[in-house]
């Protein structure tokens, strides 16, 4: 909310807003996001000249940049869970939320909110209603927040600047495919009070999840599902 206010008042493309903690951190839908001291909580304000139809790709490439930063700086194997989580050993370590304002089919502004459980201790995570971890818990060491953020921003800027080129976008999507869950699994998806099940086999170039249901291929976006879970 604060990032959107700044975007409205100053509107500087590329502005980054950092928080020591958040009292009203939000995830997808109505979910809350615990944001205590020790985490990395920040938002990026952008004015991308892309179709609103591929906003989901920005969420995914943000997750890719987080996962690769964890891998390269901490030597920990991180995966993405479609549509907006980053996991270590199936435990949530980061989340991404993209919110946009669209006018006449053009993106007026886009705010990417990113939360990384960086130096969060076990006692701060215990009791949550989700299975989570932190980079500190998994690596056994305190993580330098400034270096981690700089590493992430370098990777994010590289992907973001290239995504407007079709061949580069295809390369980015291929990288995402290699680390994203639940590709290769049977899943249950809740959409508009209906539960559907099928085989998740790919994502398309817009970031939609492709699921084979009763011999039909259906594309799902993060905006039209309530939840997704692996069933086998």
Automatic annotation (TrEMBL):
GO terms for cellular component: cytoplasm. PROSITE patterns: BPL_LPL_CATALYTIC. Keywords: Ligase. One of its GO terms (molecular function) is biotin--[biotin carboxyl-carrier protein] ligase activity. The keyword Cell inner membrane does not apply. Residues 1-164 form the BPL/LPL catalytic domain. Pfam families: BPL_C, BPL_LplA_LipB. InterPro entries: aa-tRNA-synth_II/BPL/LPL, Biotin_CoA_COase_ligase, BPL_C, BPL_LPL_catalytic. The keyword Isomerase does not apply. PANTHER family: BIOTIN PROTEIN LIGASE (PTHR12835), BIOTIN--PROTEIN LIGASE (PTHR12835:SF5). This is BPL/LPL catalytic domain-containing protein. It comes from marine sediment metagenome. The lineage of its organism: unclassified sequences, metagenomes, ecological metagenomes.
